[in-house]
Amino acid sequence: MYPQANIDEEIIKIKTLAVGGRRMTKSVFNQVIPLSPFDSELTFTGDKVIGYVYEQQSRWLLFIKDGQLRKYILDNILQLINVGKSTKYKDFQSLADRLRFGHLQTNFDHEDDWNKERKFATESYSEETWGKILNRIDKAKSFIAFLDDRQIFISA
Length: 156
Prior knowledge:
This protein is an alpha+beta fold. It has helices at residues 26-31, 75-80, 89-98, 113-118, 121-124, 127-147; strands spanning 18-19, 22-23, 48-55, 58-65, 68-73. The protein has a 3-stranded antiparallel beta sheet with strand order 3-4-5, with no helix packed on it. Strands 1-2 form a two-stranded antiparallel sheet. The radius of gyration is 19 Å and the shape is elongated.
């Protein structure tokens, strides 16, 4: 029913990261300082992407910034790529705040709780602003696709 791999014939590459000539361990990973590698336009500002680690139900980006190893949780970026016509304004604005998009001019009064709860994000911004948001979503999709084959495994 399902294709089965013959273990003797399959070659699987597992990428590990060496720090100071030794494999990165979970203990070392936990000590890496978190830092956002993106500006408000979602442009990568780090020096080099190393890859990502899947740890505790989240993907963590490992990258170099100013010669230092840093990490960044990709949960918000992964949520951004799922923003669409059915995304409510309130949910999108919360995500935009976490991603530090800065002020995005809306089409309604910010004190209007009814609109915050019921309006869709696509209805809440001008075409120009929504176009900028879509550009950021495209950047997020491209970045996640770039990471697709760059998973790194760390030792326990």
